[in-house]
Amino acid sequence: MKREYPCVEVNLGKITHNTREIVKLCSTKGIHVVGVTKVFCAKKPVVKAMLNGGLEIVGDSRIENLKRLEEFKCRKLLLRIPMESHAAEVVKYSDISLNSEIETIKRLSKAAKRASKIHNVILMIDMGDLREGVLERDVIDLVKEIISLENIKLAGIGTNLTCYGGVIPDGNNLGKLVMIKKEIKDKIGYEIPIVSGGNSSSLYAVMNGTIPDGINQLRIGEAIVLGRETSFGKDVPGCYKDSFTLKGEIIEIKEKPSVPIGTIGMDAFGQTPHFEDRGIIKRAIVALGRQDIVSEGLTPLDKQVNILGASSDHLLLDITNSCNLYKVGDIVDFNMDYGCLLRAMTSPYVKKYYVD
Ligand SMILES: *Cc1c(COP(=O)(O)O)cnc(C)c1O
Alanine racemase N-terminal domain spans which residues (predicted)? Predict the structure, then answer.
């Protein structure tokens, strides 16, 4: 099949393998994994590959993505706190949602009643990262209110760390989450089934054995997709780091100076650029730009190629030192970090191909 560029090539076998490794690692600690699909827009072949790795539940931040996955029989979890205005869709397309606003949960209750469904809610508690979640001191009152609502089941408590504030999950904050579960049991007599202890950053604590007992769910995206935990960026043992490869086509190669000629003002994005004079260099332009990628998050697979910069539609490479004799029309491969992968997968200009 003739390919179009730029494209992302996804190795589905590697996704299945990584999922299996992470499910196995977590199961040694009694932890269930929610496979998070948002970074690849819940593309069906990748979701299927994840499910083949032994997952029973997938999570996404967008209800539109979960709606597209209706044909998949697994359970579905909505990660982003729902918009009140989406209550009916949330109840229809997800089995469980993360929540922090009682008014929204009341709307979900009404929508669930109308649909004759029970909707599961995980109450998010802010353990210090300062993104979503209620404060600890409000938990008991909220739990009382939530368990009184019709067609709502309080399925768990959870937290999210290392997203806004960069707070590392540890025995202190995750330990406290487990304590809150005990407190709810002691004060109200309600047994909380799920304690959802965060995202790929919590995997580090699983890897070194410090994850507190009682955490029984993690919501994992990046570690499955890129093979690394996100507290310290350490590799997850046995996982592939190259499941996703970005490919772009060279449209120009010229020997030109390394420093622009003329008075230097602002670049296309309002920044004043700086240049190191390395004389004449061999430069390649790849038909890829900020509409498709985050250039800072790209790593060429050819170690002798350096990225000079990018504008909306052009990626500039220094290929002076490469052993490859690049020519116009050649394809250059890159690894991507999380932010770049997110951009590439959401860009309508980047084609997606799947290999086994
Ligand atoms: C994105 C997200 C996750 C998964 O994060 P990764 O770092 O990709 O593992 C987990 N929980 C919530 C609430 C999220 O928004």
Answer: 10-225
